[in-house]
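Handoff note, outgoing to incoming analyst
You'll be picking up this chain. Sequence as last confirmed:
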Amino acid sequence: MSEKQDNQLSRREFLSGSTVAAGLAVAPGVFLTLTAQAKPADQAVSSDNRWGMLIDSNKCANGCTSCVSACEQENGWGSANPTENKSSPEQKAQWIRKVTLRDKETGHVQSLPLMCQHCEHPPCVDVCPTGASFKRADGIVLVDKHICIGCRYCMMACPYKARSFIHEDLQDQLPHAPRGKGTVESCTLCVHRVDRDSDKAVPACAEACNSEGHKAMVFGDLKDPDSEISRELKNYGGEQIRADLGLNTGIRYRGI
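Most recent structure output, in case you need it:
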């Protein structure tokens, strides 16, 4: 291996290595901010799991935005950001949003949360020119902010409009949810919770929904036949939004 190749390899290894957010002095007055570590180096994610969520629109209350507020607070985006980062309405990030569906024939109205669908075959990954958009072995789709160049191809490719572009400077970000101006972001299924304790992990949105008593969101391992989400899907079924695209989404819905 040449010295040039060795230098390039070292740089890639450095950029891909995740560690708890901290300032590393590389020169007087210059600091390099590293991203939050999603998984300890000795605990690699496994394809034995596939994390997903089942959302029952019949239990999702109209006008309730607890799931959205919980995601804002947990990951530090939007108007509920505890660090007081405020964006104009046109530029506000949306990791999760509530949408209203209306049947034109019957007039029936439904409300449901919409976020990154964590596809098995994610279009955002296919079109990303740098590899910043990627899917983990356990099915969670993420963005590597180190190598995202802000081209927004992924935003155009996503049929669910689930990604946001950060237009503005940010301060006081949360260590487990690094963000950056000029990059794209979306729902991570609270990956920091999954990596901390996958057996008990519940994303902030589902936790808030349960606390409100709606219990419209069930999170779990789709590959574990004994998990609650697998039992629910087997016994009562679930649907994908735009199943015709063949993306095999990790987010399933009931009642749509």
